[in-house]
Amino acid sequence: MKPAAFDYVAPRTVPEAVDALGNGGRKAQVLAGGQSLLLEMHLERIRPDLVVDINRIPELDDMQIIDNTLQVGALIRHHVFESTQAVPGPLGSLLSLAVVNIAHPPIRSRGTMVGSFGWGHPASEWCAIAMALDADIQLQGPQSARTVAARDYFHGPLKTARRPGELITSVRYPLLSEHTGVGFIEHRRTHFCFAQVAVAAILTVHDGVISEARIGLVNCADRPLRAHAAEQALTGVEIGPPMDGYQLPKHHPFTRSGRIASEQDAAPLAEPYADLEYRRHAIAVVAARTLCQAANDHRSRIGEAKGGCQ
Ligand SMILES: Cc1cc2nc3c(=O)[nH]c(=O)nc-3n(C[C@H](O)[C@H](O)[C@H](O)COP(=O)(O)OP(=O)(O)OC[C@H]3O[C@@H](n4cnc5c(N)ncnc54)[C@H](O)[C@@H]3O)c2cc1C
């Protein structure tokens, strides 16, 4: 199918883009990587009468670390995070573990991280990580700029706190300390499908004891989620010896936390290839394995810091 006719502008600055977006109450859409928008326009599920292409705005093509925070501008493409060197420390490892699950290389070379926040899909890896890490989203509107915490940003499937006429300029994530271990595991039907379930786990560990757990759930509800109940069940727990995530005992704290994530935090919806029972089981299993991966990651970081393996 061909998209319906639309007008096109390619502003050179953020104020020009915001001006175009707010212009005369038109049904405007931002074109970033185009990997969701163009598909939807071809299927005529979205029919904008104005497309505002932000690809010629140099200030949006910027990623920096400011005050222990990673700020990712609206034109930074998914593929940048494939290198663990792109972002320092455990945050870089987490982003690189997650990014390879997003579609395939051509999509990752054009699609943008910030575009995922414009789209607001419940199966977005970046959005669940933002929930787990208390990231925030920076928006520029016609009158003023504002910052919205990830926990207040997602309102439902493809529904966000972004107001018509606002441009997302960047997303900011806190950097993670070296006491942190990270994990990200995704389960999906075929390699290029969206996740049926994915989990991001971030464990802060001091002297072998978990002082803070953060868990983000991908496609486990109508929006990206943070698994608060499952996190609480891990505070003060010893991470214990290295383990194989595929052989966790039934009563292990990670198995228990995975079950809590599935039963108390998640609110999965049935899908054609996954009924509710299957989805809840998958959430519990993937969450437990991801926690195990994060604990093992912490051990190897400590081992490296001490100059050996643990
Ligand atoms: C086959 C396929 C598989 C995919 N698999 C995955 C997957 O597994 N995980 C995943 O997360 N994504 C997946 N995607 C989507 C892909 O990651 C997109 O790149 C992403 O959702 C949107 O980024 P974009 O830069 O392409 O945005 P665009 O397509 O350009 O825009 C998407 C929407 O966001 C809005 N928008 C974009 N940028 C801004 C901004 N700066 N300010 C305000 N609004 C903005 C646009 O108006 C539009 O409504 C897949 C896509 C395809 C086609």
TrEMBL record:
Entry keyword set: FAD, Flavoprotein, Oxidoreductase
SMART domains listed in its UniProt record: CO_deh_flav_C
Native organism taxonomy: Bacteria, Bacillati, Actinomycetota, Actinomycetes, Kitasatosporales
Keyword Transcription regulation: no
Domain FAD-binding PCMH-type: 1-178
Name listed for the protein in its UniProt record: FAD binding domain-containing protein
Annotated PANTHER family: XANTHINE DEHYDROGENASE SUBUNIT C-RELATED
Keyword Oxidoreductase: yes
Entries under InterPro entries matching the protein: CO_DH_flav_C (IPR005107), CO_DH_flav_C_dom_sf (IPR036683), Diverse_Substr_Oxidored (IPR051312), FAD-bd_PCMH (IPR016166), FAD-bd_PCMH-like_sf (IPR036318), FAD-bd_PCMH_sub1 (IPR016167), FAD-bd_PCMH_sub2 (IPR016169), Mopterin_DH_FAD-bd (IPR002346)
Protein species of origin: Streptomyces brevispora
